Amino acid sequence: MTDFSFDNLRRAPDVEAPNLFAFDATDRLLLDTAGTAINADRDGVVVIGDHYGALTLGAAALHGAHSIRTHQDPLSGELALTANAHTAGLAAAFSHYPLNEDLLAGARTVLLQLPRSLAALDEIAWTIARYASPDVTVFAGGRVKHMTTAMNGILARHFTTVAAGLARQKSRILTASAPVATSASGFPVEVKHDVGLPAPLILKAFGSTFGGAKLDAGTRYLLPALSAARAAGQAIDLGSGNGTIAAYLALTRPAMEVVATDRSASAVASSRATADANGVGDRITVVRDDALSSMPDSSAELIVLNPPFHMEGTVHSGIALKLFADAGRVLKPGGELWTVWNSHLQYRTPLASMVGPTRQAARNPKFTVTVSTRR
Questions:
Q1: Per-residue confidence of the chain (375 residues) as pLDDT tens digits?
Q2: Are residues 203 and 193 in contact, defined by beta-carbon separation less than 8 angstroms?
């Protein structure tokens, strides 16, 4: 007996706020549109991009799906789904998988929350077409305001048939079938950047990594300032993304060991690839973590962070504040948190409160770099 209701879903351990939601109209539309397909093959369902469990648990509770294979890029999403499943009595209905052959082998019905990134969609669509059953049907849904015709084009590269459904409550479903399998995914992509080192910095990125293999403008401004960071045997690149900061620290401080941590499975893979591409993979440990939840209190000498300033397209400081608080917990007394942020965000006060005395290390019209010292 289950106790499933969309209204009972929670985002935790992700940030919770009145303007941030655990499900949306796209979840409901996907489940309604794919209902017949799910009922026809209840053990062949794969869910990709489920935010906090609405699709996975809805497929199980509303359509009787079982042995559901689910892939969520953020670890926080995995943890939220697991918690929501226990609340609903559906913990046995699904299993977590990476984005690979094991996730999709034999799959006949795929429910996909469309990612914002076209690169992410390209990698996901390639993986489905490469490994799923030849008669797979993909139901890809999103909010109309975030959907573009380029998404149709990407799906059309990997599937013979792509059709758009009617919009409902500002959501729409794209249905794709008849996969066209190709030999290479094109990921990770690689870009070389001049950052003032003897050789270009090589950045690699898989599809769902924020910013891809680009060098983020704030990070570019931060890097030279790090020459003034305290001497430390180990540093943490918090929210490592494509691994820029971790690789730069390892290259400029040959005696330093670096931990690169990110909640995104794609970012973790990208950080590893970047570390190896720059010849410093032996000194960079990459960890998938929700903030720094696996790190002990008062254990780090140096943390470097370029925090995100939005969540699901909503400008929101919640994720940055969560990272500041965890950095304050993990730093040793006297340890430093180096942070770059868009100057208009005014993060200096929360940094001082959550970490310790905070001074400005660099500033230009767009970015501010601060150093917070743990009390």
A1: 467 899 999 999 988 888 889 999 999 999 999 999 999 999 989 999 999 999 999 999 999 999 999 999 999 999 999 999 999 999 999 999 999 999 999 999 999 999 999 999 999 999 999 999 999 999 999 999 999 999 999 999 999 999 999 999 999 999 999 999 888 899 999 999 999 999 999 999 999 999 999 999 999 999 999 999 999 999 999 999 999 999 999 999 999 999 999 999 999 999 999 999 999 999 999 999 999 999 999 999 999 999 986 544 544 467 899 999 999 999 999 999 999 999 999 899 999 999 999 999 999 999 999 999 998
A2: yes
Give the torsion sign (CA, 370, 373, 374, 375): negative
pTM above 0.70, yes or no: yes
Nearest Cα residue to 164 out of 196, 190, 125, 138:
138
